[in-house]
Amino acid sequence: MSPAYPLPIPPLGHRKPLLELGGVDKVFNGSVTALQGMNLKVAQGDFISLLGPSGCGKSTALRLIAGLMRPSSGSITWSGGQAQGDLGVVFQEPTLMPWATVAQNVYLPFRLQGRPFQEVEDRIARALSLVGLENFHKAYPRELSGGMKMRVSIARAMVTEPRLILMDEPFAALDEITRHKLNNDLLDLREKLQCTVIFVTHSVFESVFLSDRIVVMAARPGRVSAELQVDEPYPRSEDFRTSARYAELCHMTSDALHVAMGEHQEAAE
Predict the structure, then answer these.
(1) Which end of the chain is more exposed for a tag (fewer CB within 10 A), N or C?
(2) Where are the domains of the chain?
(3) How far are the Cα atoms of 12, 187, 225 from residue 212, in angstroms, in the given order?
(4) What are the helix and strand counts (H, E) for the chain?
(5) Sheet containing strand 32-43, strands side by side
(6) What is the pLDDT along the chain (269 residues), one digit of tens a residue?
């Protein structure tokens, strides 16, 4: 899988634009405002976490970017336009087909494009190798652990070499040890693929470890309350997780989240 641009990823502020949300509103049933005035610029190579309480519109924003729904107003614009295969999505649940093998599950995006399995078999094998499942291509989902199922979902999202991968709380249902391991593996994949990631999470600690940009959202109506930059270089290790700088960044992010939740309470009064 070749990167979309030369290695390494340029520093923040020097990356090429990829996607922009401009004044996006989303209203459901004519009365429930999930998002209001959502503005977000995404550049190639960004790892952005959308952080906020339940009901702040994080998942709605992700679904709008994925094209699963349309904004009520505002715009979502891809730099240079969006091509087939530019987008990969990983949901909170792996959503695997139980009757299909691991390889057939990863093949699904190509199948939807009408491409024969034999034509893309090498790319499927490489995607499975990158997530550590090279020996499980003939296994069925029922034979896998929760963490392994999520790895299959990640392989399926990245097998088409997308410019952008959207991840909607993919590790929320996993135990802490597995979650930490997959956080580490995700950053390793990002370094190898040089892809752009937008990652939805409720966890301050996860957002700081993974991201170089954290977008903190306030709820009802959902909107951007603050943006923080994590200036720690990649790759990141357990040394970062136990460092004073990590603790400081978590404290700053937690403060920003409390402010956002205060904005929600004020709006509700």
Answers:
(1) C
(2) 40-86+164-173+191-269, 92-161
(3) 8, 11, 17
(4) 8, 9
(5) 32-43, 17-28, 73-78
(6) 444 444 578 888 889 999 999 999 999 987 889 999 999 999 999 999 999 988 889 999 999 999 999 999 999 999 988 777 789 999 888 889 999 999 999 999 999 999 999 999 999 999 999 999 999 999 999 999 999 999 999 999 999 989 899 999 999 888 999 999 999 999 998 888 888 999 999 999 999 999 999 999 998 889 999 999 999 999 898 999 999 999 999 999 999 999 988 865 555 54
Secondary structure class of 201 (helix, strand, coil): strand
CATH homologous superfamily of 40-86+164-173+191-269 equals P-loop containing nucleotide triphosphate hydrolases (3.40.50.300)
Residue with tokens 């190898």: 192
Measuring CA to CA, how many Å separate 140 from each of 42, 100, 108, 174, 194? 36, 6, 15, 19, 30
Which residue pairs, CB below 8 angstroms and at least 24 apart, start in 133-136?
133/102, 136/102
| CA-only gyration radius of the chain, Å | 18
